[in-house]
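Appendix B, example 12.
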Amino acid sequence: MTLFRHIGHTSHTKPTTVTNKRGLRVNQQQGGNMIFGSRTRSRTQGTGTFSCPREDGNRRYHHVLVSRWLQAFRLPLMRVEQLGEFVECRSCRSTFPVYVLDAQPGSPVEDIVTTALRHAVSTVLGHNNLTPRDKREAVIVLQRYASVPYGSSDLEIDLREGADQPAGQDLRQLALSLNDRGRVAVLDATVQLVGRNPNPHEHDIAAIKAVADALSLPGDRVRRTLDQRIDQLAMAS
């Protein structure tokens, strides 16, 4: 969306929208030298010590704000809006909602990877007729990545609630509170949720790509992760 059309430059040529190598959508003035657009930027708001639910001990943290900034020539001009905030453990690199800072030590606080996975479940499994074995294996995958206990009743809740609303928009919002490690973890778990088939169906691949798109992960990363999973399954068979 174009937020303004003029920054100290007058031109009667039509601006064109281009995408640079980093995926930034910008408006470029033909016949001039003005290039501007918006970019999501993260910055540390504060630091301190908290009880990390993942590591069950006191750890250093960063309180991070995520905002959309208007920029020209790659230089930030002004903050347009705040998109989100999160707490990142400096030890395990997990990210949590800000309320984790007020939680009692030892409290089961769901990290954002877990929340994102619970939203992704319906995208990758909702179109399948799941057998009891499929569900058991899905629970095992989610238990491997979740920061809180996860069982079959949780899976049923996620499948039921996910059927009522698409997960894409929620995942896009959650992705703002995930670092690179967290986004890759969600993708890895999503690929594992597809199942044991070394020749995944087209709708499975489409579901994985939908999750990756919501997480803003590039296609080559999806292909590489999927190929690794297929190789693992082939070796195990």
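Confidence is low (pLDDT under 50) at residues 1-34. The longest strand covers residues 35-52.
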